[in-house]
Amino acid sequence: MQTPSDRHEYPAHWEADVVLRDGGTARVRPITVDDAERLVSFYEQVSDESKYYRFFAPYPRLSAKDVHRFTHHDFVDRVGLAATVGGEFIATVRYDRIDARGLPASAPADEAEVAFLVQDAHQGRGVASALLEHVAAVARERGIRRFAAEVLPANNKMIKVFTDAGYTQKRSFEDGVVRLEFDLEPTDRSLAVQRAREQRAEARSVKRLLAPGSVAVIGAGRTPGGVGRSVLDNLRGAGFTGPLYAVNKALEEKELDGVPAHRSIRDIEEPVDLAVVAVPAEQVLAAVTECGEHGVQGLVVVSAGYAESGAEGRERQRELVRHARTYGMRIIGPNAFGVINTAPDVRLNASLAPEMPRPGRIGLFAQSGAIGIALLSRLHRRGGGVTGVTGVSTFISSGNRADVSGNDVLQYWFDDPDTDVALMYLESIGNPRKFTRLARRTAAAKPLVVVQGARHGGAAPQGHAVRATRLPHATVSALLRQAGVIRVDTITELVDAGLLLARQPLPRGPRVAIVGNSESLGLLTYDACLAEGLRPLPPKDLTTAASAADFHRALSEALADDGCDAVVVTAIPAVGETSTADAALAEALRSSAAAAPAKPVLVVHVELGGLAEALSAAASTAPQAAGAATGATSGAAQRFHPADGAPAAEVSADPSPDSRLIPAYPAAERAVRALAEAVKYAQWRLDAGEPGKVPEYEDIDEKGAAELIDGLLTRGEGLTLGGEDTCALLGRYGIDVHRALPAPTPDDAAAAARVIGYPVALKTTAPHLRHRADLGGVRLDLADEEQLRRAYAELTELFGTPTVLRPVVQGMAPRGVDTVVRAVIDPAAGAVLSFGLAGAASELLGDTAHRLIPVTDRDATSLVRSIRTAPLLFGWRGSAPVDTAALEQLMLRVSRLVDDHPEVVAVSLEPVVVAPTGVSVLGATVRLARAPIRDDLGPRTLPVV
């Protein structure tokens, strides 16, 4: 039990679980007076050399005074943190606030001396680096801005911890001691170092689960058919390359079908890397304890009865994760379907899938077991019997994803050489900020295709503890696309896109050639291309009499055309066509495509199973039955010779990893939709190579804005600013709002107009009429007082009293296109900038575009052009083009305001009139609140359970 400190309550929010360099986990927490025995035990296990490096002298044991000093902290000027595994200390760090002379001090002194001690058995695991991140965050919270450390020159490991952290520092040497001083303010380099370490650690933690050296199945019974026994049989059937063990306390046998059997994992003399837990939920904690004590590195928990079952199960799930992390283990599950790794040196099928998927280059992640089954099934059918495209590298079904999530798997896939394409089915995103960051980095290296379930349910599925977002699904989808994610709506589209991206090159543009032997199917494909925003060339009809040689010739010509970026081949069967003809056509297409490897080729086939199987046999990674594809007794593919159109010498059906495999689709719409996603992704990759920059503005008064915000927040939380304060704050960032004066009476309106100068506008600001010019609550171009008074009388007669209408008088702005610019900080997704045209029509159509803040100049340019009604800004039907450059500058300034001052939680500029020259902001609201905690900028930590 933790006890209060001398001066402050125990800071529970400093507790955190972290992933270390080797993929194991540790608990970081404050050291308290209750830790005296743990500290002494820890110190006894530290080598004399490490003690010498810590205290600069032989220091064999801690005195009672030392123990008291190192366990009694005020959590402000003296702080100690420990990293623990299994409840025992493996490392400690402490800081003591000092003054300019190096003496103990209190605030406002902002420097502290810091020192580490890591148990020798845990050195090299990145423990000190993780502790430095956490103690630095604690120090910043307590007003400390700089650390000083004195290190012996021979202590290279500790010097490296400090110098590699990425902070701004200076180094000196005096009296035989290296003195390091460094600022604690995060820098771009320190953040990059932190995220690189995070990626390596989390990727390693997933690899330990996917590539274990040995596996134990806890709950494997004697009788086939149970969950545990099924997993054990699937592991055996897949040919797992390491030792397997069956564990069940009811077992008397020494073996189960040749697998060594034990009543407890403690009875296994050899190390166990991965344990699959398939016992009733009430027995899982005991099994986890045994695993932890035996040194198991990770768990796959297929047992159900957790958060998906209600409040009691949710608490059981929290306790499971806390308990596993105590021993440094990570968990997939609970309620998981399992994991698969098809690598030949692993061959792991620790799942409920009865068959091992074909090896290939696609990584699969599914939060739902049912969807995981569907994905594996579809890839199995499409990968072996329909398209011959590819198989699976790894598969993870996370169940309730209480610990290992899609973010962790993305970290693993990012530099996994066996995965070329990542497919994910997500029902919730626990940390959208982090997911977006990781997705952007992953998508820059390999395609990431995502389908999101539970989009319209309004809540996460049972078992998923995620923070709420106020953003609609369409906005979240747009932000994912901005990060390079290929967003699709169904698992069919997920597989369609994945198969194309796995083996075909990215198209260089939207120009599509269509060749085939059916005019109607060609026209359907042409229409589908137009509907998806592609630029199809006129279809080339080869007629139904076309031979394999005709297809080869036509495809070769299309691929050689510089005006073509991709080719869709459409094919229908000829009457009486044989499997030999199918094989010849498949080989003709494959050989033609292989001669032009820079352009993607897709096939649309209608009721043409023979061609689909032949395409598979032409270059398949799957084992082929004798004669299955071509009728030949060898089962080998036949090479096409365009000179005579007939099969020639036989070649091996087993291609190299770089073989050109052609995906086939049963409908034109599906093929074209997959191609359209590939085109958009390819363009994103090009744009990502030049991401743009966040501009600097000399006229921005960041300090003045900060002082104004601090003063305004003294009035209270959740503050919506009045007109004058709004104008003052926006003005600090060079955003001018047209002056609007209240007009509670006709005389006040006339006086306001005289101050502003005619012509003026009279408009209501009542909530039900605000920004609804279509309802008639605005009168424009009032040239004199007579017109103003007449308009005032009309408004009050039509809509009610001035008290209800809240009329204002505003100077006329140049005519143009009315738009809306908004920014909001969402608790889950972060700061988002939105843009659209003003008016009910755009709102009804949802025609709004979004970008994550901070917005770059390229982001702003694309944002303006992303809405469907963008042509209105660029001279649609003879209208004058408006000043979109000025509009982009306005959006960049709003982005800077929100990014510089997280207390600005909402900004709405409506309407923003974009004229042929310049923009006019006619209405603005700003909302302030205390800055929310940015968990993506703090030290590395696993999600709190």
Written account of the structure:
- It is built from 27 helices and 41 strands.
- Helix 8 (281-294) packs parallel to helix 9 (311-326).
- The protein is an alpha/beta fold and 945 residues long.
- Strand 5 (111-118), helix 4 (127-141) and strand 6 (146-151) form a beta-alpha-beta unit.
- It is flat, with a radius of gyration of 33 Å.
- 35% of the residues lie in helices and 23% in strands.
- The strands form seven sheets. Strands 1-2-3-4-5-6-8-7 form an eight-stranded mixed beta sheet, sandwiched between helices. A seven-stranded mixed beta sheet has the order 11-12-10-9-13-14-15, sandwiched between helices.
Can you lay out the helices and strands and say which pair or pack?
Elements: E1 16-19, E2 25-30, H1 36-44, H2 48-55, H3 64-71, E3 78-85, E4 88-98, E5 111-118, H4 127-141, E6 146-151, H5 156-163, E7 169-174, E8 177-183, H6 188-210, E9 215-218, H7 227-238, E10 244-247, E11 255-256, E12 259-262, E13 274-277, H8 281-294, E14 298-301, H9 311-326, E15 330-332, E16 338-341, E17 348-351, E18 359-366, H10 369-386, E19 392-397, H11 406-414, E20 421-426, H12 432-443, E21 448-452, H13 473-482, E22 486-488, H14 491-503, E23 511-516, H15 519-531, E24 535-536, E25 540-541, H16 548-560, E26 566-571, H17 579-594, E27 601-605, H18 609-618, E28 637-641, E29 646-651, E30 664-665, H19 668-688, H20 702-713, E31 719-720, H21 723-732, E32 740-742, H22 746-756, E33 760-764, E34 778-782, H23 785-799, H24 802-805, E35 807-811, E36 817-826, E37 830-837, H25 840-845, E38 848-852, H26 857-866, H27 884-900, E39 904-914, E40 919-921, E41 924-928
Parallel strand pairs: 5-6, 9-10, 9-13, 10-12, 13-14, 14-15, 18-19, 18-20, 20-21, 21-22, 23-24, 23-25, 23-26, 26-27, 27-30
Antiparallel strand pairs: 1-2, 2-3, 3-4, 4-5, 6-8, 7-8, 11-12, 16-17, 16-19, 28-29, 31-41, 32-35, 33-34, 33-35, 36-37, 36-39, 37-38, 39-40, 39-41
Helix pairs in contact: 6-11, 8-9, 10-14, 10-18, 11-12, 14-19, 15-19, 16-17, 17-18, 22-23, 26-27
